[in-house]
Amino acid sequence: MIHSLFLVNSSGDIFLEKHWKSVVSRSVCDYFFEAQERASEPENVPPVIPTPHHYLISVLRHSIYFVAVIQSEVPPLFVIEFLHRVVDTFQDYFGVCTEAAIKDNVVVVYELLEEMLDNGFPLATESNILKELIKPPTILRTVVNTITGSTNVGEQLPTGQLSVVPWRRTGVKYTNNEAYFDVVEEIDAIIDKSGSTITAEIQGVIDACVKLTGMPDLTLSFMNPRLLDDVSFHPCVRFKRWEAERILSFIPPDGNFRLLSYHVSSQNLHPLRSTSLVAIPVYVKHNITFREGSSQGRFELTLGPKQTMGKGVEAVLVSSQLPRGVLNTNLNPTQGTYTFDPVTKLLSWDVGKINPQKLPSLKGSMSLQAGASKPDENPTINIQFKIQQSALSGLKVNRLDMYGEKYKPFKGIKYMTKAGKFQVRT
Amino acid sequence: MEWANQLCENRQFGSKMTDSKYFTTTKKGEIFELKAELNSDKKEKKKEAVKKVIASMTVGKDVSALFPDVVNCMQTDNLELKKLVYLYLMNYAKSQPDMAIMAVNTFVKDCEDPNPLIRALAVRTMGCIRVDKITEYLCEPLRKCLKDEDPYVRKTAAVCVAKLHDINAQLVEDQGFLDTLKDLISDSNPMVVANAVAALSEIAESHPNSNLLDLNPQSINKLLTALNECTEWGQIFILDCLANYTPRDDRESQSICERVTPRLSHANSAVVLSAVKVLMKFMEMLPKDLDYYGTLLKKLAPPLVTLLSAEPELQYVALRNINLIVQKRPEILKHEMKVFFVKYNDPIYVKLEKLDIMIRLASQANIAQVLAELKEYATEVDVDFVRKAVRAIGRCAIKVEQSAERCVSTLLDLIQTKVNYVVQEAIVVIKDIFRKYPNKYESVIATLCENLDSLDEPEARAAMIWIVGEYAERIDNADELLESFLEGFHDESTQVQLQLLTAIVKLFLKKPTETQELVQQVLSLATQDSDNPDLRDRGYIYWRLLSTDPVAAKEVVLAEKPLISEETDLIEPTLLEELICHIGTLASVYHKPPSAFVEGSRGVMHRRLPARTGSGESTESPDVGTAAGGSAPEAAPSIIPSQGDLLGDLLNLDIAPSTTTGPPPPTTGMQMGGMDLLGGGLDSLLGGDIGGSPAMGAGFGVAPAVMPASLNAPVGGGLGDLFDLGGGVGMPMGAYIPPKTVWLPAMKAKGLEISGTFARRAGVIQMELILTNKAMSVMTDFAIQFNRNSFGLAPAGPLQVLTPLGPNQTIEVSLPLSTVGPVMKMEPLNNLQVAVKNNIDVFYFSCQYPISMLFVEDGKMERQVFLATWKDIPNDNESQFQIKDCHLNSDAASNKLQGSNIFTIAKRTVEGQDMLYMSIKLSNGIWVLAELRVQAGNPNYTISLKCRAPEVSQCVFQCYEAVLKN
User: Fold this and answer.
1) Beta-carbon separation of B80 and A151 below 8 A
2) CA B397, B401, B407 angle in degrees (round to 5)?
3) What ipTM did this prediction achieve?
4) Which terminal residue of chain A has fewer beta carbons within 10 Å of its beta carbon, N or C?
5) CB B950 within 8 A of CB B723
6) How far apart are CA B710 and CA B704, in angstroms?
7) Which residues in chain B are closer than 8 Å to A114, comparing Cβ atoms?
8) Peptide bond before residue B828 is cis, with ω within 30 degrees of 0
C-alpha cells in the first residue's frame, strides 16, 4: 500500500513529507528529480518511476508534484486516484492548493493525511466525513479557538463513516432548502487543415450543490437519457434504477459534489446518421505561411460561429505555439488583445465575444531569423470558448423530484458548454 | 523564496491565523524553548508547543529529543492534543523504544474508552509503533477490538492486524489473528469486510503459498454483496480479490460478471480498471456463442474510452492496460481508433502510448485515417515522438498489406523533408518493408541512395548498407557506395561493421568480377585489423566459405530469407495471459511478469486465465490443477537439462570423429567435469550453498548462519565436522537417520538403481543417494527434480555427479534440500515424488521422508508460551498414540529425541509416571506440542500430540517411534 508521500515544488524542493509505515528516506526522491531533469516540460515527468526498492507514483497539480512511494504491488490507478483526492481535499479546506497554503496549515494537513490513510489503506476520503473529523480552518474559527481554547478536531465519531449512506451526515438543517445542478459539457476536438473534423467528443458532467434539510431522496430524469450510454456515477446513485428506468435516483451528499460524468463520442450522438459528428460550435480560417528564403511569414486568422444553437460564443481565447524560428510578430486584431512571447514563442489572443456580423480576425506578419531555413513544423491553434445556457450534446433535464421530506425545495438547472482540448491544425 | 515572503507577510500583520508561525524559530535554543512550553501548566500553551513540534517534524527537523516531554502530554481529554501526540509517537517511537514503553498504559486504557473514536484511534496508533516491546502489549487490546461492538473499531483493528504482521508475522500467526481476520470476511458490515480483505491480501503477498484468501462460492457471495455497499477503496480491494478466484463453471462465471459490471460506471478509475480485470478474466470461461458474451464485450468499450478523458497520469496507466487488452481482445476497441489520436499538448508519455495502440488497432478499414494522422505527427516538434511516428508508418505497411504502397509513398514524402532524424527512421523502416514485400518497392532505392551522406546513426547506416548489399545487382554504383563506407571502417559501430562485411560479400557474389579487390579489403579489415571477435569470426567464415566453395557460399549468403512477421513486438501469449490477470497493477504498466515486482518474494504464484469449461463438470483452480493429476509421471514437470548437458553434447559432437585419440567417454568426462566444477563453484558463490564433490558431501551439512560461506568450498568437509562436533556437545546423540532403502530398482530404470535416505545435518536437510549403474553403458548428465510437495522441499542445488558413471560403478551423492519450493499437499503427507534424468531417460519414483528432517533447531518453546498454546489449541486437535516395547528411561528418551530437534521443555513426575512436555517446530513454522508419558517398568509409552494442523500428528508419531527405537 501507500508508504509515504512527498510534496515537491516546481524548483525541486521537498516541502512536506508524510510516512504511513516506516520512514522512507527522502533520498528516494532523487530518482524523481532525475526524471524531472530529463523531462523537457514539467508535465512530461512519467507518472510511474521505478527505483531499486520502491516505486514512485506522482501527479502534478497546481505546480506541485505529489509523489507517493510504494513498495509492493499496488494498483497505480488506486494511488493516483488517492492523490487526486488529497489535492481535492486541500483545495476544499484551504480554498487553494498551493505550497504557501499547505505550509500555512501544516498541522491541519498532517491531521488530514493521517485521517485519509491508515497503514497505506484509505480511511476517510469523503469530504463530509473529513470535515466532521477535522474542521476546516476559517478565520473566525481560528480566532474563536485562540480565545476559548477549543479545538478544530471533532469529538464525535462521524455519523457518515459507517452508515449505508456514508456520503451524507445526519441531522442536516437549512433554512433555505435549495438544490442546484450544473450541466457542463466540454468539447474536445481535432480539426484538420482543411477544416474537417478528425475527432470530436464531449466530456460532460453534472455538478450539484444540494443544501437540503434531513434525508431527502431525489430523482432526476432526462428528456433524452439515450445520450447517456457511457456514464460514471457518484456512489450515491442507485445503479439498478438507472439500468431499468434511466432515472437518477439518489440520496445526495450535503453540499457540492459531482453527480455524474458522461462521455459522448461522435458515433453515438446521432445513431441514425452515421456520418454526422459532434456539432462544432466555431470555425477558424487560417493562413500561416513561411516562404523559403524570406525572413517574413504571413499570419491570418479569422474566427466565426458555426453550430451554436442560437447562443453566443463568449470568452474566446486563441493560443498557438509558433515555430522556434519566429523572432517576433506584427499582428493586428480587429478586437481584443494579443500577446506574443518571443522567448516561449507562445502567441495568445484574447478575443472575447464573437459577433456574427463582424467576425474577429488577427492578421499581420511574422519575422523570422535571417538566413534560417523554413520551419518544419506547422503550429497548432488551441481555442477556448464558452457558450452559456446550452449543452452541446442536447442533453436536457426533464424534472427533479424530492421524496422523503415534506418541505418544498428551491430547484435550479444551468447548462454550459466549454472548449476542452479544442485544436485546429494548420 | 515565495515561502520566505509569505513568512514576512505573516509577521508584518502580526498574524496568528496560520500555522506558519510554527516555522519561524530556527534559532539555537529552539528545542530548549519548546521543552519549557511542553511542560507548561497551561493547556493552551502545551497544545501550541506540540503543534510547533509537529510542524518541525513534517519538514524533516529532528525533534526526537523532546520525546519524554511530548509523551507527558498524552494523558489528556483533549482529542486534538491526543492526536497530535500520537502523530509524534508514530514518528519517533522507533528511535526511542524505551521511552515508547511509557506510552503503553495510556494506549491500553484508551482501547477501553467508551468513545469508539478513541478506541479505534488507540489501536490504530499502537499498530504504527514499530517497537517489539510494544507489540507484545498490543495483542490483548487488538483481540478485543477485533470483536468490538462498533464496526468502526473492527475495521480499524482489521488493518492493525496487517500492520502487526508486518512487524512480527510469527506473533500474528501464534495469536490466531489470521483466523479472526478470516472470520471478519463474513462480518455484517461491508466496510469491515473490505478492510479484512485488504489486510488479508497484503499479508498474503508476503506468504505466497498460504491459503489465506481461500475463496469458495459462499465467501464470493459475501464479497459480492459487500462490493455494492462499501467505499470505492473497499471496492478495489474486493475486486482485486475476486480476480484471484476461479469459478467452477461458466454459469458461476457469468453470474459474477453480471454483478461486477455495474462497477464499470464508477467515478473512480481504479474501481473501473479492477472491474475490467475481473471481467476480462472471467469472460474467458464463457462460451463465445453466448449472447451475454457479446453484451459483455460491448459493455467494456465505453469505460475504457472514458478513462482516456481523465488526467494524463490516469490516461497513461489506462493506455498501458489498454495495450494489453487490445492484444488479447482486439474486438473490444476496434471501432474506437479515434480516441487514440494524439493531441499536440498531451504529455509525451501519453503520446507514445497512444501511438502504440493506434498501430495495434490499424486495419484495412481505418488505415487511411491512421496514415493521415501519422503523417501529421511526423511534422511535430518532439524528436522521440516524431521518430516513433515514422516507425509506426512502417509497421502499418507491414501489418496492413493493402496500405503498403501508401505507406511507402508517405515515407518518401517524409524523406523529402530532409529532416535528418526523419530520414534516418524512414530508411530503417523501409528496410523492413523490403523484407516483407520483396521485389515490390525497390524503385525507391534511388531516392534512398541520395540521402546516404546524411545518415549518422548506426541503425540507419546499417539499414542502408543492408539495402545496398541486398539489391547490389540493381544499383549501378553499389561498389562505390559501399567503398565509401569502408573508408572509415574502424570508426563505425559493430552493427555497421558487420553489416558492411556481409553486404560486400553479397556484392562480390553478385558481381564477382569488379569487386574482388573490395571484398579482400573488407575481409582483411575484419579479420586482421579488428579485435572484435564477432567481426573476426564472421570474416573468417566468409573467407573460408569463399575460398573453398563459391557455389556453396552463394547458397548460404544469398539464401532466400523468411518473410518477417506481421505484427512486431507482440507480448508472448503466456506472459500476456498472466498480465491480463494482473490488469491495473504495476506489472501491467511495465508489461513484466508480476514476480518481478514483489520484493523478496519467492514463488509468487503465476496466474493463468481460466480454461473454458461447460457447466456441470468442475475444474480445479489452476494453481492446484496438477493435484488432480495424481501419479507422478503426469504431475512431474519436465526436467530442465542442466547447462552442462548442452555443452557436453557439443563437445561430444566435436570429439566423435576423432575416436582414434582414445576412448571418448573419459575425455568428455574430464572436460565436462571442468565445466561443471566451474558451474558448481558459481552456484555455491551465488547461493551460498554447498556444491562440493560427493566425497565431501557426507560431513558437509553446515548451516550458512554458522559458518561463513567463503569457508565452505575447499576445506568445508573438515570444518563442517568440527562444527558438527561443537554443536553436538549438548546432544549426546545425533539426529536419527533412517537406513537407506531402494527407491528405484534397476529394472525399472534401464539399469539405474537409486537407493537413499534423508538426513538433517547441522540444520541442513540432505537427500543422500546411492546411484548404481547396473547397465552396460556409461551414464552421464544426471539431474534431479521434485514434484510439488507438502513442505515445499526442493533441491537447493544441482545433483553433483561430476564423473560419468561407468557400468557397475556406484556413487554416493548428497543433495542439499531447501524448503522454499512450491507447496502442494500430498497423501501421505511426507510423500515426495522425484524425477531423475540421465543421458538415457527420465525416471520417476516416490519416496517418503521422515518428518523429523523438518524439525528445526530453534524449536524449543518458552514454558509459558507452551502452556498458553497447549490450552489454546482445541482438544479436537489432540491425538494419542502408543509406542510399544521401548526400554529407555525418560532421560535417555529425552536425550535421544533432542538429537532430532524434539525438545523437552519440562518434566513432571506423578505417581511414578514421568510426564515429558516437548515442543517441535517444523520448517514451515508449524508447532507441534507433545506430552510423553513413561512409566517405570512399562515398555509402552503413551504420547499425546497437539498441533494446529492435526494432519501432521501421524507423521510426527512415526518419527517418535523411529527415533526411540533406533
Assistant:
1) yes
2) 30
3) 0.81
4) C
5) no
6) 10
7) 83, 87
8) yes
CA terminus-to-terminus distance, chain B: 82
Whether A105 and B74 have beta carbons less than 8 Å apart is answered as no
- Identify whether the C-beta of residue B665 lies closer than 8 Å to the C-beta of residue B648: no
A-facing residues of B in 134-193 (CB < 8 A) are: 150-152, 156, 159-160, 162-163, 166, 189, 191
Q: Please give the Cα distance from B86 to A113 (Å, whole number).
A: 14
Report yes or no: B116 at the A interface, CB cutoff 8 Å.
yes
Q: Are strands A231-233 and A255-265 parallel, antiparallel or unpaired?
A: antiparallel
Query: B229 near B189, Cβ under 8 Å?
Result: no
Strands A217-222 and A397-403: antiparallel
DSSP 8-state class, residue B708: -
Asked whether residue B621 carries a pLDDT value surpassing 70, the answer given is no
Terminal C-alpha separation, chain A: 47
Sign of CA dihedral B195, B197, B199, B201: negative
The minimum CA-CA distance between A18 and chain B, rounded to whole Å, is 7
Taking an 8 Å cut-off on Cβ atoms, the answer to whether B274 and A75 are in contact is yes
Residue in chain B nearest A142 by alpha carbon: B17
- Distance (Å, whole) CA A62 – CA B833: 62
- Which residue type sits at A131? K
Task: Say if residues B492 and B458 touch (Cβ distance below 8 Å).
Answer: yes
Question: Could B314 and A201 be called an inter-chain contact, meaning their C-beta atoms sit closer than 8 Å?
Answer: no
Measured distance CA(A165)–CA(A312) in Å, rounded: 41
| Beta bridge partner(s), residue A383 | A318
Contact list, B151 vs chain A (CB under 8 Å): 162
* Rounded-to-integer distance, Cα B883 and Cα B387, Å: 79
- Nearest C-alpha in A relative to B306: A263
- Are A57 and A71 contacting, i.e. CB atoms less than 8 angstroms apart? no
Best mutation target, B2, B10, B15, B18, to test chain A (most A CBs within 10 A): B18
Determine the Cα angle at B451 with ends B449 and B453, to 5°.
105
Cell numbers found for residue B350: 501519453
Determine contact, residues A160/A132, Cβ cutoff 8 Å: yes
- What is the tens place of the pLDDT at every residue in B83-109? 888 888 877 777 777 777 777 888 888
pLDDT tens-digit map of B170-221: 888 888 888 888 888 888 888 889 999 989 888 887 776 667 777 888 888 8
Among B10, B163, B587, beta carbon nearest to A119: B163
What's the Cα-to-Cα distance from B175 to each of B110, B161, B233, B800, B868, rounded to whole Å?
A: 22, 11, 28, 43, 10
| B311 contact residues in A (CB cutoff 8 A) | 59, 80, 84
Note whether B528 and B539 are within 8 A (CB).
Answer: no
- Residues B260, B262, B265, B267, CA torsion sign: negative
Q: Is the pLDDT of residue B905 over 60?
A: yes
Residue with cell 508535465: A43
* B243-289: pLDDT as tens digits: 888 888 888 899 999 999 989 988 899 999 999 999 999 988 888 88
Other CB atoms within a 10 A radius of the CB of residue A391 amount to: 22
If contacts are CB pairs under 8 Å, which of residues 347-406 in chain B contact chain A? Answer: 347-349, 369, 372-373, 376, 379-382
CB contact under 8 A, A203 and B58: no
Q: Considering only alpha carbons, which residue of chain A is nearest residue B264?
A: A232
Tell me how far apart the alpha carbons of residues B92 and B96 are, in angstroms, rounded to a whole number: 6
A81, B268: Cβ pair inside 8 Å? yes
CA distance A318 to A331: 14
Residue B501 and residue B512 in contact, taking contact as beta carbons nearer than 8 Å: no
Confidence band for A363, pLDDT divided at 50, 70 and 90: very high
Interface test mutation site (partner B, options A232, A263, A288, max chain B beta carbons within 10 A): A232
